[in-house]
Design brief:
alpha/beta, three-stranded mixed beta sheet, about 30% helix, globular
Length: about 270
């Protein structure tokens, strides 16, 4: 279905009751607690982009809050969130945008920015399809945080399939906008190594992110490595660098140490 023929039905939540609480009151309380406990980073201006993880809140919710709480001070200015991450369940070529008009969470509906989606729908790498979005948790788990932080935003959901960093960067460039737009790149880091191996690998990945070394990222470094690489490519062109807020793994939060998943949080500020 083309964007021009888009229907305005809703995508129901797929991860509620699994990655986070399905009860709206409990979910608000949980997200509120995570945000309240997150350190407030010192920034001279609104973050242009953030990288939070997307595991269950028990595991990575505090790290996600550490990245996303950086948007709090600038909530009145932020009108659009470009939300991009990996497709875990459906394989496809390029980047996928939805045709629905709303993403629902237990907290309520999140309107999509149809004008922004229409603006990239004709890009060669972009496909209009709901199939990859329907079961996907990577974008959905960020939405309750954004709903609590940004009262009036619209979302631009993008899932990355078999794409190149250059294709991702091209789409992000078209959506870059000004202070009204923030980019949220949803990604975990290494998967299922022992604690010490994960620490070593994730420190190396963090170093690449902070140096803007996008070409050095691979699928073993982060599930969202293509989305991160595309952001780094475009951010480097525009003079932005990553500031690390948090780096840990599930062995530090709520899991055993023999098979852990890595989590990191970064923010990017526009140069002044």
């Amino acid at each position: 279905m083309s964007i021009s023929a888009a229907n305005f039905t809703s995508r129901p939540p797929a991860a509620a009751g699994h990655f986070y609480d399905a009860d709206p009151h409990l979910l608000r309380a949980e997200v509120g607690r995570l945000l309240a406990n997150a350190p407030r980073p010192t920034t001279s201006g609104p973050p242009k982009a953030v990288i939070p993880p997307h595991a269950g809140y028990l595991y990575s919710g505090q790290v996600a809050a550490a990245a996303l709480v950086s948007l709090e001070r600038w909530a009145e200015a932020i009108q659009r969130v470009v939300l991009i991450g990996p497709a875990h369940y459906v394989r496809f070529r390029g980047l996928a945008i939805p045709t629905v008009g709303i993403f629902d969470t237990p907290i309520g509906p999140v309107a999509l920015d149809r004008d922004a989606l229409a603006a990239i729908a004709t890009t060669a790498s972009v496909k209009s399809t709901d199939a990859p979005h329907t079961p996907e948790h990577a974008l959905e788990v960020e939405l309750p945080f954004l709903q609590m932080l940004l009262p009036g935003f619209k979302a631009v959901p993008l899932l990355v399939g078999d794409a190149t960093p250059e294709e991702v960067a091209d789409v992000l460039s078209r959506l870059w906008g000004g202070p009204e737009t923030v980019i949220v790149v949803s990604s975990d880091l290494s998967h299922f190594h022992d604690y010490e191996t994960a620490q070593r690998r994730d420190r190396a990945t963090a170093d690449r992110i902070e140096r803007g070394a996008w070409a050095g990222l691979g699928p073993g470094d982060a599930c969202g490595y293509l989305a991160i690489a595309g952001l780094l490519l475009e951010a480097t062109r525009r003079g932005l660098k990553a500031l690390r807020i948090s780096l840990c793994n599930s062995g530090d939060t709520a899991g055993p140490a023999d098979k852990v998943v890595g989590y990191g949080a970064w923010i990017f500020e526009e140069p002044h």
